[in-house]
Design goal:
Blueprint lengths: L1 H24 L13 E8 L3 H16 L5 E7 L5 H13 L4 E4 L8 H9 L3 E5 L5 H7 L5 E4 L1 H13 L7 E6 L5 H17 L2 E7 L4 H14 L5 E4 L2 H14 L6 E3 L5 H9 L4 E4 L2 H18 L6 E3 L2 E4 L5
Parallel strand pairs: 1-2, 1-3, 3-4, 4-5, 5-11, 6-7, 6-8, 8-9
Antiparallel strand pairs: 10-12
C-alpha cells in the first residue's frame, strides 16, 4: 500500500510540474546547440496589437538564423495597460536566470524599479520602443540604453503631410496613447508641432489608450461634438482603425482625414482604399532585433552602450504597393 501511495504522489508531482511549466514554455524559442550561450528575454507590450506580433516574428527569425549564439524567450501582455503583468514577467525572467532582458515597457516609469533590480542581480537590460523616463532614471542613478525611433520626429512627418490637405485654421483632433508612455507623449508633441506650424486649430486631444475599441468611442463622440472636424491624428494604427470605423458609421469618411502610426497590415489596406491618409513605419520587425544585438554586445563587452536611434519613415498611399 505504501508503494502505491509513493507512486501516486510521484505521478501527481510530475503532472503538476508539467502543468505549471506549460504557460512559461509556450513562447520559448528553441534552445541553441551551445548550452553556455547567453539567454535573452524579450518582453513586449500587448500581443493583441499586430505591431508587437511583428516585433516578435522579427526576433524569432533573427534567433533562427543565430540559434547557436543565444537562447530566446519572448513574452507579452494581453492589453496595453497591464503594467503589473509586465513587472511579473521581468521577475519571472530573473528567476529563469536570463543574462539579458530586452523590454518595450508599457509604462515609462513603473517598469524602472524592477528593471533596476534585474540589473543589480547582474542582468543586462535594453530598453526598446517606448523610452524610459529620463528624470526617473537620473533620480535612481541608473543608465538603461534605449534602442528605438524618434517618435516626435515620426509624428511630425505624418502631421506635416496631413497639413497639405488642410487649410489654415481647420479644426483637428489628436487621439493619444497611454498618457504615462513616453512614446505617446512624443507622438502627441510631434502632431502638435506640425499642426501649430501649419496654423491648424487643435480642438481636442484625448487618450484612447492605444486601443481600437476605445478610439472608436472617442472618435464617435468627437464627430458629434466637433461637426466641422477636418482631421484625426492617431498615435497608433489601432486607434486609427477605430477612428476610421467611427467615421464610416457616421458617413463622414470623405470629410475627415485620418493618419496613424506603426504601418501595420490593416493600416496598409486602409491606405490602399483611401480611408487612411498616412501612417509611420518604425520597422517593428527590426526593433527587437536591434535590442537583442545591443544586449549581446553588452554581454560580450561588459559595457553599456549609448542610446541608438532607429529609423522612422512616412508611409502614404503613393508609397504603398
Amino acid at each position: 500500500m505504501r508503494y502505491y501511495n509513493i507512486l501516486f504522489f510521484s505521478v501527481l508531482a510530475a503532472v503538476i510540474a508539467v502543468g505549471c511549466g506549460g504557460d512559461n514554455q509556450q513562447r520559448e524559442a528553441t534552445a541553441p546547440a551551445e548550452p553556455d550561450s547567453p539567454r535573452i528575454a524579450l518582453i513586449m507590450k500587448s500581443l493583441a496589437n499586430e505591431f508587437f506580433l511583428t516585433m516578435e516574428e522579427g526576433a524569432k527569425a533573427h534567433h533562427a538564423a543565430n540559434s547557436d549564439a543565444y537562447t530566446l524567450f519572448s513574452e507579452g501582455i494581453k492589453d496595453e495597460l497591464d503594467v503589473n503583468r509586465q513587472i511579473q514577467l521581468v521577475q519571472q525572467m530573473m528567476n529563469r536566470r536570463v543574462d539579458a532582458i530586452v523590454i518595450a515597457p508599457a509604462d515609462s516609469k513603473a517598469l524602472i524599479p524592477v528593471c533596476q533590480r534585474a540589473m543589480d542581480a547582474g542582468v543586462a537590460v535594453v530598453n526598446i520602443d517606448n523610452k524610459f523616463d529620463a528624470d526617473v532614471l537620473a533620480e535612481r542613478g541608473v543608465h538603461i540604453p534605449f534602442v528605438g525611433p524618434d517618435n516626435r520626429k515620426g509624428a511630425y512627418l505624418a502631421g506635416k503631410y496631413l497639413a497639405q490637405y488642410l487649410e489654415e485654421g481647420d479644426p483637428v483632433a489628436i487621439l493619444e496613447g497611454v498618457p504615462s508612455a513616453f512614446n505617446a507623449i512624443q507622438r502627441r508633441q510631434g502632431f502638435e508641432d506640425a499642426m501649430n506650424e501649419a496654423g491648424m486649430r487643435i480642438v481636442a486631444s484625448q487618450s484612447a489608450d492605444w486601443e481600437m475599441a476605445r478610439a472608436n468611442r472617442v472618435a464617435s463622440a468627437l464627430i458629434t461634438e466637433q461637426p466641422e472636424l477636418k482631421a484625426m491624428l492617431c498615435a497608433n494604427d489601432n486607434m486609427a482603425l477605430g477612428a476610421v470605423a467611427a467615421l464610416r458609421a457616421a458617413g463622414k469618411l470623405d470629410q475627415v482625414h485620418v493618419i496613424g502610426f506603426d504601418n501595420i497590415s490593416a493600416a496598409q489596406e486602409l491606405l490602399a482604399r483611401g480611408e487612411l491618409l498616412a501612417t509611420v513605419d518604425q520597422h517593428a520587425d527590426q526593433l527587437a532585433v536591434f535590442g537583442i544585438e545591443y544586449a549581446l554586445e553588452m554581454l560580450a563587452s561588459g559595457e553599456s552602450p549609448d542610446d541608438h536611434e532607429t529609423p522612422v519613415d512616412l508611409i502614404t498611399a503613393e508609397a504603398t504597393p
